[in-house]
Design goal:
single chain, Rossmann fold, 2 domains, 3-stranded mixed beta sheet, 12 helices, globular
Length: 318
């Protein structure tokens, strides 16, 4: 298949692209910079210059492709307080792809996030589907960027009614591996800065996780075989206790492991506090049954123990 991939040089995309190429697919990657274009060329992909705001570029690339994987999201804007703007750009891209692929039965895959806590049980692929209502920490009546992104996922699922083989792949908060600059890297940086490795309360709350290579493999399986309107969970581990994460970080950095009270968490963990205290076990049983996905990468604790999260940059040369 000729597959157009946005976010092709990003954290997930740079694993998805070689996974697809190795399986015999031809990749066209969206690149907004010379550096991204060079990465894609090196990987063996064709380059299409532009950004997710270039809707004419997206429309033409989708029309020329056998399928689309949309991984790009304006995380830099989102984390600086512009989540609604980032989610709005995401929705415009999804609508553009939907229009280009309508009636073709060609696949459109998008990356989204797991929904967070479900009442008294692990969250499943079915959560958040009824009547397009958002669930999880944003809640069915939430407003703002996170709820908008969940609405974008629902809009993607609904494209199945327009003849698009649409699929949403929900990623957990931790997609880990060597080179990760996400939540785990942030926790390590906070521990270094504070001189302690902390968790909120007793630290028994759990985060789902997946190794980047396993997430990439699921995107390939979904591209090749997911049914229209599917929602999948790229979750290898249902829930890793945050206390266990803090203990690994403390051991590698030689720092004490401490409990931080919920009241003190915003000052200690800054922007991460609102996420770190969530207990969000998430199941991928339905995804595994549908596509035969069997994660083989290291678990989060083993990956942390490999040490790459704790490597410090070499000092600049004189």
């Amino acid at each position: 298949m000729r597959v157009f991939v946005t976010g092709a040089s990003g954290w997930i995309g740079s694993a998805v692209v070689p996974e697809l190429i190795e399986a015999g697919h031809q990749i066209v990657g969206l690149a907004r910079s010379d550096a991204s274009a060079a990465v894609l060329t090196e990987a063996g992909a064709e380059v299409r210059r532009g950004t997710i705001d270039d809707l004419d570029t997206l429309r033409a690339a989708a029309a020329e492709s056998d399928g689309v994987i949309h991984l790009a999201f304006k995380h830099d804007i989102a984390f600086s307080g512009g989540f609604e703007d980032a989610a709005g750009a995401d929705r415009r891209a999804i609508d553009t792809f939907g229009d280009a692929l309508a009636g073709s039965d060609r696949p459109l895959l998008i990356a989204s996030g797991t929904l967070g806590p479900a009442p008294g049980r692990p969250a499943t692929e079915e959560d958040g589907q009824a009547d397009g209502q958002a669930s999880g920490p944003a809640g069915a009546h939430a407003t703002g960027g996170p709820a908008m992104r969940q609405a974008n996922a629902w809009a993607t699922v609904a494209l199945a009614d327009r003849g698009v083989r649409s699929c949403v792949v929900r990623l957990p908060p931790t997609v880990h591996g060597d080179g990760d600059q996400g939540f785990m890297a942030s926790l390590v940086a906070i521990a270094r800065a504070k001189g302690v490795s902390g968790h909120i309360g007793d630290g028994a709350n759990r985060w789902p996780a997946v190794h980047r290579s396993d997430a990439a493999h699921l995107f390939r399986l979904a591209l090749e075989g997911a049914s229209a309107g599917s929602t999948l969970h790229a979750v290898a581990e249902e829930g890793v206790p945050i206390r266990d994460v803090a203990e690994v970080i403390g051991r590698h950095l030689g720092l004490p492991v401490v409990s931080v009270s919920p009241d003190d968490a915003p000052a200690h963990f800054t922007w991460l506090a609102g996420f770190l205290g969530l207990d969000s076990p998430t199941s991928s049983a339905h995804t595994r049954e549908l596509l035969g996905w069997r994660p083989t990468g290291p678990g989060l604790i083993d990956d942390l123990d490999e040490g790459h999260y704790f490597a410090t940059p070499a000092p600049p040369s004189a």
